[in-house]
Queue: 2 jobs
Job 1
Amino acid sequence: MDPPSNSEQRGKTKIANPKDAIKFIQRLPNPGSQVSAGFPALAEEKTMSQVAISPKLAQLLSSSQELIRSTKGFMPPDEGTALAVSLFNCSASFGYPAVEIGSYIGLSTLYLGLVAQHQRRVLISVDHHRGSQENQQGWEFHDPILVDPVSKKMDTLYLFRRTIDLAGLNDTVIVVAADSQIYANSFREGIGFLFIDGGHSLEQAEKDYEAWVPKIIPGGCLAIHDVYPDPSLGGQPPFILYQRSLREGFRVVVSQGSLRVMKKDSS
Ligand SMILES: C[S@@+](CC[C@H](N)C(=O)[O-])C[C@H]1O[C@@H](n2cnc3c(N)ncnc32)[C@H](O)[C@@H]1O
């Protein structure tokens, strides 16, 4: 079975000059949505071009640009960059683990993992690697190449591990192949940054919220993917989580495409 398009060669390209790295970031597609990424001054929304991306962050992302481009997944470059900026800037969370629910083949993990490695903290990436409902046969996002020919089940684990290997992130990413709620029940630490991109049914999304959001430390950040205020553009469960977070002491710091990042009240 031919694997999907992860490049076989190691994905890192060293860019010596930070200005080249910034040019790479500026070339990323921006569908015109708004980003408000000013930490700690968060009051005003800014467009992507107004966001200050530090040369260090630009260099981190550009060093793995080939791998990012060739990894299958559900994270467009502008949203991935906004996700990386959010983790980079969520200073209250430094020293605490970052947690991702929904690794798939590791595209969002690259954006988060490169930053976490720079910050010398771990990124715990949780996925049962059996695919969500929409990844199963007969559904819109099914990819037959991801079906294990023996078990006949979806299996993204080996490709996810390959992505982590190629990115040189084995010292940073803790791979958890488990159901997110089962793992949450045994996880007692505070977390600095949580990214929710797992099961997208209302039941599953609410379970993830309830299991993981209370673990976020004051001043920590919550990122939710696939937030569509307009139901004609996408399913509503992530939007429902987003609205709930605003009622429960979070405020938006980044809004890019369907990505929303909120910061937890530090009081
Ligand atoms: C939309 S994909 C994640 C996409 C990924 N973040 C990316 O950037 O490409 C959702 C993932 O959530 C996983 N998932 C769904 N329900 C889960 C659950 N209850 N526990 C763990 N993982 C789950 C699926 O296996 C799938 O890989």
Job 2
Amino acid sequence: MKIAVAKIRETLGAELEFSWQVPKKLLDVSYCGCKLCGGVEVTGKLVNGGDEIAMTAEAELTAEYECSRCLEPVRVELKIPIFESYTRDRIEGRSWFDGDTVDIGEAVCQTVVLGVPVRALCREECRGLCPGCGVSLNEVPCKCRDETGDERWQALSGFRAERES
Ligand SMILES: [Zn+2]
Ligand SMILES: [Zn+2]
């Protein structure tokens, strides 16, 4: 995403606002175990700071996960701050601009991908699934632990007693 900066290039402190609907194909968040739903909107500004042009921006997006405890779908709204500066001269390890345009694409996409959490809970107190019978403990009180006839739990409690003694 290239932004023409001719308007602010010569004036110290001059600002240029921008917004960008980031194409989702530029944002590979599959390692986070989520899908992006709706658009990814970045709004921000470029400021002429003399030797460099500074970008401050914020990305707004919604990601859909499976709750990492109970596996119910959960949508998380995210606001990810983005900062970068672009030097006039090429400097090793820094982003730079070519005089007419600043290309914000890489900084925006990297920051967004790194800013998306790798897991989510439907709520902080989610009780998850029972390891014995698989019911969602948010919805029904599980009876596994009360049923004296369930051999799996008896075996487990026997094992615990052994380890503790
Ligand atoms: Zn949950
Ligand atoms: Zn159970």
